[in-house]
C-alpha cells in the first residue's frame, strides 16, 4: 500500500468502503432479480415452481463451490480484477436471461450468475482488509453487510417496476446492462481498490491449501452454515409463515419481510460501531442471536396484534444484523497472513450451504402443516450458532 497522509486516510477509507458496499449491494440485488418474476415465467414457459426453484438451487450450488476456488484466485491474481469479472458475469447472465427462448436456458444462466456471485466475499474482504485502517475495520464490514441487505430489499421493487413498464425480458436486459456498466465503474477505481497480489508475500507463498483448514476456520464455516440455515429460512419464508401463524394478509407479510431487512441493515451499522470498540465479539453475537431467537419464537407461538408483529420482526432483524460485523472480525482474527481471500471464500461458502438446506427443511415443516415449528427450528439453529461462536473464540486464543 502506498504511503498516505493521516489527513487523507478518512477519505481513502470512506471511498473504499462505499465502493465495496456498492459492489456487495449489486451481488445481493442479483440474488433476487429472478424470484419476483417466477409467476410470470411459470406462465411464459409452462413450468412449475419446482423447476423455477431449481434455477436458484443451481445458482447457490455453483456459487458455493465456486466461492472456495475464487478465494485462491483472489489471493493469486488480486481481488480488484476478480471482483470486476464477477460483477460483469452477473450482468451478462441477466442479459442472456432476457433473451432466453425456453426454460432450459435459465440453467446455464444460473451457472454463469453463480460463478459471478462466487467472487464477492473473498474479493470484498481482501480489499477491505488490505485498504481500510484497522481501527475502522468493523465499521467497514458493517457497511459491506448493509449494502447486501439493501440490495435484497431493492431488487423486488426495481424488477417488478421495470417489468410492469417494459415487460420482463426488457427488464432483465436493462438490469444486466446496468451490471456491466457498474463493473466498468469498479474497474476504473484501481487507485483505491487495487491490492498487491498476496502470493508475493513470503508468509503465504507455497503454503498448502490444506493448512488453511485449521480448526478455527472449520468452526467459522460451521457458524456461517448455522446462521444461514436459520436466517435464510426467515428471509425466504416469512411472507408465507406470517399469514399462517399471525393471520395477517400477504401484503402485510411482505411488508414485514422488508422491515426485517431494513432492521438488519440498521443493526449492522450499530454493530460495526460496537465491534470496533470491544474485542468481545463472541458476546455481541450471543446477545444478538439469543434476542433474535426470542423475538422469532414469540412471533411463531404467541397471538400478537399487528403492530407488535411488525415491531418484533424489526427487532429480530436488528439483532441479527448487529452480529454480522463481529462475525467478520472473528473470521479475520482466525485468518493466517496472506490468506484472506482463501479463508473468506471458504467460510462464506457455509452461507450457501445453509441457504440451500433451509428451504428444504422449512418447506418440509410447512408441508406437514406445522408453521410454528419453523420458528422453533430457526431458534434452535441460532442457539447452535451461539455455541459455535464461543468455539471460534476459544480456538483463536489457543492458536
UniProtKB/TrEMBL annotation:
The chain crosses the membrane at residues 16-34, 54-74, 81-97, 103-120, 141-162, 168-187, 217-238, 250-272, 284-302, 308-325, 346-366, 372-392. It comes from the Bacteria. The keyword Transmembrane helix applies. GO terms for cellular component: plasma membrane. PANTHER family: FOSMIDOMYCIN RESISTANCE PROTEIN. Keywords: Membrane, Transmembrane, Transmembrane helix. The lineage of its organism: Bacteria, Pseudomonadati, Pseudomonadota, Alphaproteobacteria, Rhodobacterales. Residues 16-397 form the Major facilitator superfamily (MFS) profile domain. Pfam families: MFS_1. This is MFS transporter. The keyword Protein biosynthesis does not apply. SUPFAM superfamilies: MFS general substrate transporter. One of its GO terms (molecular function) is transmembrane transporter activity.
Amino acid at each position: 500500500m502506498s504511503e498516505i497522509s493521516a489527513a487523507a486516510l478518512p477519505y481513502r477509507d470512506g471511498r473504499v468502503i462505499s465502493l465495496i458496499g456498492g459492489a456487495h449491494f449489486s451481488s445481493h440485488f442479483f440474488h433476487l432479480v429472478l424470484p419476483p418474476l417466477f409467476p410470470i415465467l411459470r406462465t411464459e414457459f409452462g413450468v412449475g415452481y419446482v423447476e423455477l426453484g431449481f434455477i436458484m438451487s443451481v445458482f447457490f450450488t455453483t456459487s458455493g463451490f465456486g466461492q472456495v476456488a475464487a478465494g485462491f484466485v483472489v489471493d493469486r491474481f488480486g481481488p480488484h480484477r476478480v471482483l470486476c469479472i464477477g460483477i460483469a458475469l452477473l450482468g451478462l447472465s441477466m442479459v442472456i436471461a432476457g433473451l432466453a427462448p425456453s426454460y432450459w436456458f435459465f440453467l446455464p444462466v444460473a451457472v454463469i450468475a453463480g460463478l459471478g456471485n462466487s467472487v464477492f466475499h473473498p474479493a470484498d474482504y481482501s480489499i477491505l482488509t488490505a485498504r481500510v485502517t484497522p481501527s475502522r475495520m468493523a465499521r467497514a464490514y458493517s457497511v459491506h453487510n448493509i449494502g447486501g441487505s439493501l440490495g435484497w430489499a431493492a431488487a423486488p421493487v426495481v424488477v417488478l417496476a421495470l417489468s410492469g413498464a417494459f415487460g420482463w425480458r426488457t427488464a432483465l436486459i436493462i438490469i444486466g446492462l446496468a451490471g456491466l456498466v457498474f463493473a466498468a465503474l469498479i474497474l476504473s477505481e484501481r487507485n483505491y481498490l487495487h491490492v498487491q497480489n498476496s502470493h508475493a508475500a513470503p508468509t503465504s507463498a507455497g503454503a498448502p491449501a490444506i493448512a488453511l483448514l485449521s480448526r478455527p476456520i472449520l468452526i467459522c464455516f460451521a457458524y456461517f452454515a448455522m446462521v444461514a440455515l436459520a436466517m435464510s429460512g426467515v428471509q425466504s419464508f416469512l411472507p408465507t409463515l406470517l399469514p399462517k401463524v399471525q393471520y395477517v394478509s400477504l401484503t402485510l407479510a411482505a411488508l414485514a419481510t422488508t422491515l426485517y431487512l431494513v432492521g438488519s441493515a440498521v443493526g449492522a451499522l450499530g454493530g460495526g460501531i460496537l465491534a470496533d470498540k470491544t474485542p468481545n465479539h463472541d458476546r455481541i453475537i450471543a446477545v444478538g442471536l439469543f434476542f433474535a431467537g426470542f423475538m422469532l419464537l414469540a412471533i411463531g407461538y404467541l397471538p400478537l396484534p399487528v403492530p407488535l408483529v411488525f415491531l418484533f420482526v424489526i427487532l429480530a432483524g436488528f439483532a441479527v444484523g448487529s452480529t454480522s460485523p463481529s462475525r467478520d472480525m472473528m473470521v479475520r482474527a482466525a485468518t493466517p497472513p496472506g490468506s484472506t481471500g482463501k479463508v473468506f471464500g471458504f467460510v462464506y461458502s457455509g452461507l450457501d450451504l445453509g441457504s440451500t438446506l433451509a428451504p428444504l427443511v422449512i418447506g418440509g415443516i410447512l408441508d406437514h402443516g406445522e408453521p410454528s415449528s419453523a420458528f422453533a427450528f430457526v431458534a434452535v439453529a441460532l442457539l447452535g450458532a451461539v455455541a459455535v461462536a464461543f468455539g471460534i473464540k476459544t480456538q483463536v486464543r489457543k492458536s
